[in-house]
Write a structure and sequence with these properties.
Bound molecules: ligand C6P
Radius of gyration: 22 Å
Number of helices: 14
Number of strands: 17
Largest sheet: 7 strands, mixed
Strand content: 15-25%
Shape: globular
Length: about 425
């Protein structure tokens, strides 16, 4: 497939693929800067979903009729596309979930409950999303394992010195976010993996925010598990991926019991299906999995390089313009950062800023972004977060910065 080079990157052409962007909100052209919460969907994803329900809807892996075969084929084609997208060894290492949250819970329960015992240690960082904290807290309650926290520095990077101090032979799992949703920080995953593996710990990567911005290569990363969500990478909601290395997945117990995950069931005992089906109990979200393939195709067509270059330009323009605003207080300014700007304006509550921006058609997220420990770290209630995607423009950022200036002026009168 031919990808778009930097010179041929045409943001207006890309925007035209996203019907939702072409609308007025509260009388203004919509400016959608809430991409870290969920991205918009290109027409090819929407069309694939419609096509599935108009032509192929059927249950999978269990029918001999034509529609069942078509649905099964398309569902499994997405699995292959995901395996290629993340450079997995094989499609069987790709488990479909309903999102990152489910993937992380699956590892905690199906791996953690089987292999961890009292006194073992699990390490996460202070910048984790709640979905990479709470499943481990539950596991600690169930097993007596202990949760350890890698602190973050003032600019929002992992304190790698502290990590080196914390890691030891009791560490059994390191579960770490690739890109922080509230700070934008890109973490040095390969380094963490090497250190964790040297003490025999498994590494789980929360790739929710990385999947839309970063080339995900499980071989380069070396991680044992990687979880991400389709809806943050231009795909449908309700679908996620848990990648796991074959030998690890095979040793794990099932996560849920039901149809599809078994080989034989009797009251004398049940045998389980092979991976990945062992972890996909019940009828999955077939239509959305099928449409997810188109989101992958969309990203591959643009190419990670062009995508990255464009988003980094937006980040640079946004950072420069916002820094000129009086009272601007960035939260998270790591050297290696994705296109997310989290900030506060002195004397104005983030929620108020969010409301006034919405009145001008600008969608941002405000609050703690499901990372309350980050807010505690900086002793703030929340932030305003503007997160940029491939279809955002420099002009939108200029409009956003002007709108902020005007809103602040009104507040300070
Ligand atoms: N962050 C945000 O606005 P789900 O909901 O399962 O698709 O993803 C959970 C999740 C896990 N890890 C990270 C780093 C995330 O950013 C998210 C979702 C959204 O930042 C909703 S809180």
């Amino acid at each position: 497939m031919e990808t778009i080079t930097d010179q041929h990157f045409d943001v207006q052409k890309i925007r035209a693929e996203f019907p939702v962007l072409d609308q007025k909100v509260n009388g203004h052209d919509l400016i959608y800067f809430d991409n870290a919460a969920t991205s918009q969907k290109p027409k090819q994803v929407i069309d694939a979903l419609t096509k599935y329900y108009e032509h192929n809807n059927s249950n999978i892996h269990r029918g001999v009729h034509t529609l069942a075969e078509r649905a099964t084929h398309d569902y499994e084609e997405t699995r292959k596309a995901v395996a290629t997208f993340i450079n997995a060894n094989e499609a069987e290492e790709v488990v479909f979930t309903k999102g990152t949250t489910e993937g992380l819970n699956l590892v905690a329960q199906a791996y953690g409950r089987k292999f961890l015992k009292a006194g073992d240690e699990i390490m996460v960082s202070e910048m984790e999303h709640h979905s990479n904290i709470v499943p481990w807290q539950l596991l600690c309650q169930q097993t007596g394992a202990v949760l350890k926290k890698i602190p973050i520095t003032e600019n929002g990077e992992l304190d790698m010195g502290a990590f080196d101090q914390l890691i030891n032979e009791r560490t059994k799992i390191v579960s770490i976010v690739y890109i922080s949703n509230s700070l934008g920080t890109i973490n040095p995953i390969s380094t963490i993996v090497k250190k964790a593996h040297s003490v025999g710990a498994k590494v789980v990567v929360d790739g929710a925010q990385a999947a839309p911005h970063q080339k995900l290569d499980v071989k380069t990363l070396g991680c044992d598990f990687l979880a991400f969500s389709a809806h943050k990478m231009y795909g449908p909601t309700g679908v996620g991926v848990l990648y796991g290395k074959r030998d690890v997945l095979e040793k794990m117990d099932p996560y849920q019991g039901g149809g599809e995950m078994i080989k034989e069931v009797s009251f004398d005992g049940t045998t389980y299906n092979d991976i990945p089906y062992k972890f996909e109990a019940g009828t999955p979200n077939i239509g959305d999995v099928v449409a997810f393939k188109e989101a992958i195709e969309f990203i591959q067509r643009i190419g990670h390089e062009a995508l990255h270059t464009h988003e980094q330009k937006l980040l640079q323009v946004g950072s420069e313009l916002l820094h000129k605003i009086e009272g601007f207080e960035p939260v998270g300014y790591a050297g290696d950062k994705a296109s997310v700007i989290s900030f506060n304006i002195e004397g104005v509550h983030p929620f108020d800023l969010g409301m006034f921006l919405d009145a001008r058609g600008i969608a941002v997220r405000t609050g703690h972004h499901c990372t309350q420990p980050v807010m505690d770290r900086y002793q703030i209630d929340g932030t305003v977060r503007a997160s940029f995607a491939v279809y955002n423009t420099k002009n939108e950022i200029e409009v956003f910065a002007d709108a902020l200036q005007e809103i602040i002026k009104k507040f300070k009168k």
